[in-house]
Design goal:
InterPro entries: UCP020555_TPR-like. Residues 1-19 form the signal peptide. The protein is mainly α and 126 residues long. The protein has one domain (30-125): Serine Threonine Protein Phosphatase 5, Tetratricopeptide repeat (Alpha Horseshoe), CATH 1.25.40. 70% of the residues lie in helices and 0% in strands. It contains six helices and no strands. Helix 3 runs antiparallel to helix 4. The longest helix has 20 residues, at 4-23. It starts with a helix and ends with a helix.
Length: 126
């Protein structure tokens, strides 16, 4: 029986060490960096699209640079929203660039991005 006590202590110490190691595991890195994207979309919707597009563009551009500098990817819709803001500001070239980048990054959005690009090119011709 006296041999069981050291084994029990060893198992308890091992369990505590494993538990402590598990708690110290690094936090998994997020797939996407969101920064100020969601608050910007909320602001746009809250103001029924009347928020200053230039201010939102500036914020999203800075936020995008921080996200990419941190090694994360821009989330789905980020470039599309930025493209919409560029279109609203009359910068159709930059808008098309962002919509195309969204389509490239997220191929599942191709149909919708192509529709937006067609709409954008139709407005540019008018």
């Amino acid at each position: 029986m006296s041999g069981a006590a050291p084994i029990a202590r060893l198992l308890a110490a091992t369990g505590i060490a494993l538990l402590a190691t598990g708690c110290a595991a690094p936090k998994p890195q997020a797939l996407y960096g969101w920064e100020s994207y969601q608050p910007q979309v909320y602001e746009y919707l809250k103001t029924s699209g009347e928020a200053d597009p230039q201010a939102q563009i500036a914020e999203l551009e800075q936020s995008g640079e921080r996200i990419q500098a941190g090694g994360a990817a821009l989330p789905p819709g980020y470039r599309a929203h930025l493209g919409m803001l560029y279109a609203k500001a009359g910068q159709t070239d930059k808008s098309a660039e962002q919509l195309t980048a969204e389509k490239t990054q997220f191929p599942e959005s191709t149909t919708f991005m192509d529709f937006l690009l067609q709409t954008l090119s139709g407005k540019a011709r008018q």
